[in-house]
Amino acid sequence: MKLELYRDGVTEENIADFLTQDGQLDLLVDECDSLDIKVLLRHKAQALGIPVMMETSDRGMLDIERFDLDPNRPIFHGLLGNINLESLKGLSNTQKVGMGLKITGTDTLSPG
């Protein structure tokens, strides 16, 4: 396995290199906290046909989006609707939690 560190994280400026430098990724594993980057990663992965696997810290939820098999699949399984990437920048923590709950659902959360 080849590993390359992105010490400043994935950004709009380096996302193309992250996904395709030295050959396209076989699988994108998402464990980032930035909602706008999560959405951007999925849009780019969808366009390139790269499957996405996301792990959440709450109860070890694992989510798979098979953009390699279904490139027309809506990101986050359509749970966020038609989301505008720019609208995600600068959200308050309360707003971010609300968006996150749309993705993970409230019925599977840990009790506290």
Could you describe the 3D structure shown?
The chain is globular, with a radius of gyration of 14 Å. A three-stranded mixed sheet has the order 1-2-3, with helices on one face. 29% of the residues lie in helices and 10% in strands. It starts with 14 loop residues before the first helix and ends in an 8-residue tail after the last helix. The longest helix is centred in the middle third of the chain and has 14 residues. It has 112 residues and is of the alpha+beta class. It contains three helices and three strands, in the order αβαββα.
Percentage of residues in helical conformation: 25-40%
Radius of gyration: 14 Å
Helix and strand run:
HEHEEH
Main sheet record: 3 strands, mixed
Instruction: Give the beta-strand count.
Output: 3
Shape: globular
- What average pLDDT do the residues reach? 83
What separation lies between the terminal Cα atoms? Answer: 37 Å
Please mark out the parts with pLDDT under 50 across 5 or more consecutive residues, or reply none: none
The structural class is alpha+beta
Strand content: 5-15%
**For the largest beta sheet, what order do the strands appear in spatially?**
1-2-3
Secondary structure tally, helices: 3
